[in-house]
Amino acid sequence: MFDFFTGDHFSYIAAILTTIAFIPQAVQTIITRDTDAISLEMYICFCTGVFFWLCYGVHIGSWAMMIANSFTLVLSLIILSYKIFNERKKA
Asked: Nearest 5°: CA angle at 54, between 51 and 55?
């Protein structure tokens, strides 16, 4: 009965939910390119953290972590690049 909650099921559920939760903000930021409400320092930390989660997923061989963090890293790096571009444009 509880076999569903063993193995990698939790990691896939967590990966899907956290990635889906990030998508609306990423899409809105990519479409509007409005990064005024985003902290540059926070996004640098976020991208770095996601990169290390990806590395850890590779290290332990977790496909759920590798796929979710790869997808999130790409989106977050796009947003970070918009933020850096907008900051330089203001200066």
From this structure: 90
Q: Residue written as tokens 């200066």? A: 91
Specify whether the CB–CB gap between 30 and 80 falls below 8 A: no
Residues 7, 25: Cα–Cα separation, whole Å: 31
Q: Record the pTM.
A: 0.86
Task: For 39-48, write each residue's pLDDT tens digit.
Answer: 999 999 999 9
Domain ranges of the chain: 3-90
Q: Which amino acid is at 48?
A: T
> Into which CATH architecture does domain 3-90 fall?
Up-down Bundle (1.20)
- 45: tokens are 């930390």
